[in-house]
Fold these 2 entries.
Entry 1:
Amino acid sequence: MKFVKRLAAAILFVPAMAMASGEELHLDKAPVSMDGASLQHGAKLFVNYCLNCHGASYLRYNRLEEIGLSETMIKDNLMFTTDKIGEQMKIAMRRDDGNQWFGAAPPDLSLIARSRASEFGSGADWLYTYLRGFYRDETRPTGWNNTVFPNVGMPHVLWQLQGDQMAKEGEHGVELELAKPGTMTTEEYDKAVGDLVSYLVWMGEPVAEKRKAIGMWVLIFLAGMFVLSYALKKNYWRDIH
């Protein structure tokens, strides 16, 4: 019996030991903002730089009206593969083509900000660090590598904005330095990536802010009901005693 208990305890601790043995991942805190201007800028970056290879099939174009864009603005500036605003944000690339070109089909990004969460930080933190962690690596097929996702198959699609970063070994692992500036300064690029990540967070749950607001009112209602129920209980048991 003791042997069985020890075996069960060992099995329970195996996943925890496996996670603890993994390499620690340093993630920078993402400046997530649900401000309309940030989300609109993020949507623009997403459509222009991400939607060529990555779909967002859980979201329809008309939902972008919720971040302050009009139907005309969406059609004129963000819709390039369809003329129906109720269409899903899909891409034309076939999965087989993605496997052939990149070694793996580019994933759908509808829920990427939620799926990348880990013990090291939120999914937003992972994306923010990842999109700022590309560096030149001539040994890779695309010419790029990444500090967060080593040997990634994705090229650095934002390189014209950020510029070329080079990697070198530092005291705390791989360190990056800007070898060739892009069209944006480092501060401007970090702000743009923050807006893009904010949009990806919003896209993963467009009703998050409404859900939180409703949740607050539900908690207030339950607190009020608790006070009334407690007063009723005291009044009821007073007569019995």
Entry 2:
Amino acid sequence: MDIAVATAFAALILVAGSLGGGVYETTLIDRLWPDNPALVQPSRGGINRKRFWMPAHFAFEALLGAALWSAWTRPDARRWLLAALVAHVAMRAWSFAYFIPRAIAFEKAGDFNADQHARAMTWVRASGWRLLLDLAAAASLCLAIIALLAT
């Protein structure tokens, strides 16, 4: 197995883990925390989402970069790896612009008043859409691996 296939496959495993983490958060955690903010407030014993998401994203981005570098001379695979990168960058940009600043504010807020609860519900409804971008990255990685194996 060449390095391009290995790194693309490793990136696929990590994006699948991100999808799993995202599904876990949207189907379980996000359904509960707006009514019980302590669930996402580490200072009150809640989960610290940064402990999962920061290493998961860093490792995925490093492997995706390695896959791109090692497959750059293979245009069919490069196209799909770039598509995975675009989907991931879009998800990360949206997260940095909207989700992360609000998540930090929710973590520091204590118990919510009615306005904070409404903002939390808006955040939760929008957050699930990020899964589609992770899914697009995963599908693109699958197609890149198929292209790599075909050459």
